[in-house]
Amino acid sequence: QILFELFISVMFLRSLAKALPSRGVAIRSMASVTSSGILDGDNLILHLESRYSCVCPTCYGIHSKQKIAAYHHDDVKAISIHKTTPNYHSVEWSDGHVGVVARTARGYYGPPSVVDKIEKYYRLSLRYPEEIKIWDKPNEQVPRYWNYDDIKNDNEAIDKFLEHFMRYGIVFLRGCDTEKLPEDLMEELQITPMLATFYGPSDPIFYKSTQDNIAYSADKLIQHLDLTHYNPPPNVIGLMAYVNNANGGDSTFKDLFSAAYQLRAERPDQFDLLATVNRRNRINPTTKKNWHHVYESPVFVLNHGNDGNLYRIVDHMGLLDEYHFQQTSDLDTRKRWWDAYQRYRSLVNENQLRVRLEPGVMAIADNWRVSHGRDGFQEGKDTHRYLRTFYLNWNHMQGRLLETHIDETLELDEIM
Fold first, then answer.
1. Model confidence pLDDT, tens digit, residues 83-139
2. For residue range 355-410, what is the model confidence (pLDDT) as tens digits?
3. Which of 2, 66, 197, 349 gives a 20 to 30 Å CA spacing to 39?
């Protein structure tokens, strides 16, 4: 009976504590200053680390969210903790400064809505391998269409739209206004600014019966990633259809990560070769000035942490500088590289996603992962096919996904 009453009392006190507001409430802290830094439970913040972590208005821009005082001496040390609240410590350092160190994610990043977005989308928006969904053929999630008007003014809907894009590497929009340019539509969705290239904010792709660029022809366009001569290539590509009465000419897409990982499963030696041998991507059209661009990269670029996972793919067969490869690589390397590349490209040609881009339909693809191409179509004087391509920066899409649409000011008044 006594134990039961004691248990009921403890549970009542816990529920009462949760009901009390935390703002301005100092609590008894188990934190202490040690020879190594500030020890708060199991978390040790090093002395210098704690000084760089100060989020008081003197050291940290409340609205800019950037450090204002950006340098501190190596020998600075925390000397005492003046006060502790659920989210902060008030700390004094040996340089005479008294400031604030966050104890929690809410204390450092802001209100719960900000922390919730970080916990839900941070790793996905940073392209962590375990967050993405690699597809080897079309399925119930690929292709996935959204209606433009449904996401235009609905933040929750656009979050789902962007989440799907980052997870699967491709997404489609229906109902886009063909009286507007892609840059205007992206402005309405607040996914801006556009990533301008030497083609401008967006590039018109018209069918022309006589030309020397296959993208404007009626011929089959093989799978490729765009602008591989840029350093680095654009993260995101968009294609929007304005007119399309072509007989044939379906757009095709492929998750290149699937083909690359299949190659590694079959021939790890060939995967490693495509991940280590640099190839030069080059463009120098005679019709334009200052357009001589060169970028060197392996086809497969692995994560910086060398965990063996893909970070991006750089693959545009039409831009490979063959002469440079012949002059700088030995014969054996070239033979083995071409064997590996041809096998990889054969996997790329399997199980492609095939869709027809009707007027008002926009495709947005991860240009580091999902390639695009086009079936050939019948030529004729009455054939009209007009699309516009455009490019976006991944970080601007990340920013739109992580946007909370509220005042994210840190609640420092609970301790200052």
1. 999 999 999 999 999 999 999 998 888 888 888 998 999 999 999 999 999 999 999
2. 999 999 999 999 999 999 999 999 888 888 999 999 999 999 999 999 876 555 56
3. 66
How many angstroms separate the CA atoms of 413 and 416, rounded? 5
Gyration radius of the chain's alpha carbons: 27
Q: Pick from 311, 326, 317, 314: which is nearest to 346 by CA?
A: 317
Q: With b meaning 16 or more CB within 10 Å and e meaning fewer, what string describes 18-54?
A: eeeeeeeeeeeeebebeeebbebeeeebebbebbbbb
> What φ, ψ does residue 248 adopt, rounded to 5°?
105, -155
| CA 138 to chain centroid | 22
Identify the burial level of 386 via C-beta atoms within 10 angstroms of its C-beta, where 0-12 means exposed, 13-18 middle and 19 or more buried.
Answer: middle
Q: Which long-range contacts (CB under 8 A, 24 or more apart) does 177-185 make?
A: 177/148, 177/360, 178/242, 178/359, 178/360, 181/388, 182/238, 182/240, 182/362, 182/388, 182/390, 183/390, 185/148, 185/240, 185/362
Q: Do 115 and 157 form a contact (C-beta atoms < 8 A)? A: no
Contacts of 254 (CB under 8 A, 6+ apart): 223, 348, 351, 352, 353, 370, 371, 373
Query: How do residues 282-304 score in pLDDT, each as one tens digit?
Result: 998 777 777 789 999 999 999 97
Residues 6+ apart with CB under 8 A from 195: 234, 235, 236, 391, 392, 393
Name residue 280's beta-bridge partners.
296
Instruction: State whether residue 136 is helix, strand or coil.
Output: coil
In this prediction, residue 199 has a pLDDT band, given cuts at 50, 70 and 90, of confident
One DSSP character per residue, 356-381 reads ---TT-EEEEETTTEEEEE--B---T
The 10 Å Cβ neighbour count of residue 242 is 21
Single-letter residue type at 196: A
Other C-beta atoms lying within 10 Å of the C-beta of residue 402? 16
Residue 122: CA atoms inside 13 Å, Cβ hemisphere, count? 7
Q: What's the pLDDT at 200?
A: 87
Give CA–CA dist 141/10, Å, rounded: 49
pTM above 0.85, yes or no: yes
Across-strand partners of 40?
Answer: 43
Helices (H), 153-250: 155-168, 182-188
Q: State the Cα angle at 314 between 197 and 387, rounded to 5°.
A: 45
